[in-house]
């Protein structure tokens, strides 16, 4: 979609408040429905049975908060939040948490770090006159360099007065014929790569929502909503959280290569 008014900014401000409060709940022994129940928004999104998605460890996306799922030290969890304003604007964002500070140097932590870097490299490739393919190339190159794979079945998307709008923002590269789209000034899109530590193949569970890695390996996803600015101006991150900064390694890579996107 194209940018109209301040609806998107309002949505992402609400997201930031929700993620801030979820941080306080993300402790060992806390069961995942507490996220969805405490922050129920009362608005069904595409028929999803809860208010947010909680995807833990090998769950790639669309995890449903459950009484049977208790967080333990070492768990890697993604919380995906979608909100709608009273005027009908949609907003979408997600981030990762690693349960337990003492596991911050684990393989799961490394996966989460690389996935976040891949997101920001994708953001840096987003510019008017550029293409969706350039985003996918930046994301997948970084993931593959570190031995990870990129899920192809799910993608980012345009967002606005409808939750899912065009264009489809794919995170892999190269793209098939007809999949690429030229980015235009004012477009509001989500960039939300799903990075697997093993193979890229996924399976949809019997609940028809929960998506897991086929090989049981871990998966990580970060998501931002951005608005495409004028040619040569990159894009603006609408869902930037308070205190959040660009990954140091990404900033160094962009400075060395002369790229940008902030």
Automatic annotation (TrEMBL):
Cofactor(s) named in the record: Co(2+); Zn(2+); Mn(2+); Fe(2+)
Swiss-Prot/TrEMBL keywords: Aminopeptidase, Hydrolase, Metal-binding, Protease
Free-text comment on the cofactor: Binds 2 divalent metal cations per subunit. Has a high-affinity and a low affinity metal-binding site. The true nature of the physiological cofactor is under debate. The enzyme is active with cobalt, zinc, manganese or divalent iron ions.
Gene Ontology CC annotations of this record: cytosol
Domain Peptidase M24: 47-229
InterPro entries: Creatinase/aminopeptidase-like, Pept_M24, Pept_M24_MAP, Pept_M24A_MAP1
Pfam families xrefs: Peptidase_M24
Coiled-coil residue spans: none
GO molecular function terms noted in the UniProt entry: initiator methionyl aminopeptidase activity; metal ion binding; metalloaminopeptidase activity
Principal EC category: hydrolase
Any one of the GO BP annotations: proteolysis
Catalysed reactions listed for this entry: Release of N-terminal amino acids, preferentially methionine, from peptides and arylamides
Annotated EC: 3.4.11.18
Recorded family membership: Belongs to the peptidase M24A family.
Annotated function: Cotranslationally removes the N-terminal methionine from nascent proteins. The N-terminal methionine is often cleaved when the second residue in the primary sequence is small and uncharged (Met-Ala-, Cys, Gly, Pro, Ser, Thr, or Val).
Protein name (Swiss-Prot/TrEMBL): Methionine aminopeptidase
Source species: Triparma columacea
């Amino acid at each position: 979609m194209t940018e109209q008014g301040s609806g998107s900014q309002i949505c992402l401000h609400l997201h930031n408040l929700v993620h801030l409060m979820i941080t306080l709940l993300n402790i060992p022994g806390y069961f995942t429905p507490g996220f969805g129940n405490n922050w129920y928004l009362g608005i069904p999104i595409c028929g999803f049975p809860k208010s947010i998605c909680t995807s833990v460890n090998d769950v790639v996306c669309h995890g449903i908060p459950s009484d049977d799922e208790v967080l333990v030290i070492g768990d890697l969890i993604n919380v995906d939040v979608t909100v709608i304003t009273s005027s009908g604007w949609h907003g979408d964002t997600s981030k990762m948490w690693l349960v337990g500070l003492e596991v911050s140097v684990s393989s799961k932590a490394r996966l989460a770090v690389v996935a976040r870097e891949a997101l920001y490299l994708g953001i840096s490739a987003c510019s008017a006159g550029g293409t969706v393919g350039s985003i996918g190339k930046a994301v997948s190159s970084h993931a593959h360099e570190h031995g990870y794979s990129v899920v192809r079945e799910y993608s980012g998307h345009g967002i606005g007065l409808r939750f899912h709008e065009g264009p489809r923002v794919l995170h892999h590269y190269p793209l098939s014929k007809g999949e690429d789209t030229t980015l235009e000034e004012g477009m509001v899109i989500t960039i939300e790569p799903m990075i697997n530590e093993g193979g890229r193949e996924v399976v949809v569970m019997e609940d028809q929502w929960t998506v897991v890695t086929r090989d049981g390996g871990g998966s990580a996803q970060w998501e931002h909503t951005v608005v495409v600015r004028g040619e040569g101006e990159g894009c603006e991150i609408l869902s930037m959280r308070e205190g959040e900064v660009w990954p140091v390694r990404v900033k160094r890579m962009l400075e060395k290569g002369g790229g940008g996107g902030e």
